[in-house]
Structure formats: C-alpha cells, structure tokens
Amino acid sequence: MYSDEELTSAVAAGVMTEEVAVAFREHVAQERTTPAVDEEHFRLVTGFNDVFVVIACALLLVSVTWIGGAVSSSFGHVLQAATAWGLAEYFTLKRRMSLPSIVLLLVFVAGVFATGLDLLANSGLSADLAKGIPSAVAAVAAWLHWKRFKVPITVAAGVGTLAASSILLLVGFIPEVRPFILPLLLFAGFAVFFLAMRWDSSDTQRQTGRSDVAFWLHLLAAPMIVHPVFSLLMSGESSVGILQAAIVISLYIVIALVSISIDRRALMVSALAYVLYAINTILEMYGVVSLGFAFTAFAIGSGLLLLSAFWHVCRKAVLAHYPDYIREHLPAVR
Question: N or C end of the chain: smaller count of CB under 10 Å?
C-alpha cells in the first residue's frame, strides 16, 4: 500500500510525473467501495516497526531525562528535548515514520515547556504567568520543529500551546478576566476551527499533507469548542433539566450537520459524553434508572453506526442544499 505522502515524495524525486500520480489516485478511488475522500485518512502506523521504534525511543528518552534530572530537573528536560530533536533527524527526516514522528514532536514540545516551568518555578511570578511564558516558548519551539520536519501534528501542537499561552498570559496580567476563561477558550476554539478549514479548503480532494494538518487542527478545535459550550450550558445546576437536555441534543444535531458538511468526525466524538449524559438524564426522569445508560448507549451507538454506513449519502444530501461558492471550499463528494 502506498500513501499519498509517498506518492508526493516520488513526484518530487522525479520518479513519476504529477499526471501519473493523479491518475493513480483516481484509479484507487474508483476501485474503493467507499470514496477515499470520505474516509478521513491520516497516517499513524505503517507497520509494527513504528511501535517497536516508539518503545525504544520511549526507553531512551525516559533514561536520558532521568539521568539529566540527577543534575537538575531543568537539565533533564533540556536533554529530553534535545534527544527528541536528534532522534527526529533520523526517524522523521530520513525514515519518515509516522508514529515515532508524532511521539518525538510531542516529547520535544513537552520538554521545552517543562524546562520553562522548571526555570520559572521560583521566579515569584503568578502561577498563570509561570505557565503562560513556557507555553509561548513551546509554541515557538513547535514552529521551529515544523520548519525543519513538517510533521502534520506540529501545527496543532504549536497552535494549541499558543492558545494556552495567550489565555494564561491574559489572565496573568489581567486577573479580572479569569471568570471569562470558558468564553476565551471558546473563541480560541473557533479560531483554530477556521484555521483548520483554511488548510482543508486548500486540499478539497484530500491528497496531500495539508489534509493531515487540517485533521489534527480539527481534533484540537473540537474539545476547545464543545467543552465551553456545554459547560456554560450546564453551569450552576446540580443536574440537567429536561430543557437543558433538549438543548444539548439539539446542539449535537447541529454539530453532526457541521461534521458531515466538513467531512470531519472530531466534533461529534468530542460532544458524545455530553449527549450521553443528557439523554441518560431524560430517561432517569421518566423512571428508567437501572438500564438508562444502556438504552442511551444503544441508541447513540446504533445511530452513529448508521451514520458511518451512510456517511457518503448523507454528505451528498446535505451539500446539495449549499450554494456553489460554499461547496467549492468543502471536501469533495463523489
């Protein structure tokens, strides 16, 4: 099996022309029973060797951090970040292994962030500033990593740390905005969502690495949007009322329509826990206590499986109601 990334690499190396690569992709798409554009592919594991390398890297990184930590905690985390970068030079830049690349990126960013935390631990700064400044540095580190290695998840890691640092620094400098953390998180979530849509709209056929970048951005945006919305909706109540439950379910339907439209399932997955809780609450109100969650899980699970089976059909039906200028920016439907 050949991935889009490998085909793109072959074109760049002159092994085949762009026309041949496009023709190959179209042939594979026609052979599939489900159109490839609707399957939301992303590279994670290409073989068990990926898992083997991750285990070996994890052992090495833990030992290096531990040994460096014997000198000082910050030195241990510096060694962690440096080792992760060094390993990426081979496993990401040369071998192009997906899972090790993701793990090494996350370990590198976490090492930079942890180093900042250690250095500012006794600085006298507030807790928010002591976390916000290292988050900003970690965002810069993620940007440098992206410039060097171009791992798709790097953009989401950088944007996530940048959003966290912005909120933390704002709260640190202006404590009065602390009660508005959830609205700020929601605003950041929508910003990430629109950034993800920009990456998505640049590759509506989902044949390049830009689609992988968009996938991770959507995965980041989903909880940033869903959690504040439902938390604000349920705040101040010890239990969910019938009206709140109805609103939660209605919002989930809207989320489902958005997910179908943009051909991304992350939003629906992020909101699942809230919907399960809301429907279970309604059943308990009507006396279904012992089997309430079982019936709820059965209904939601069956609905999601049906939606998965007819995802392509649903997308066609939904997109048919959109004007052309919107459809042209959404993933293609065949």
Answer: N
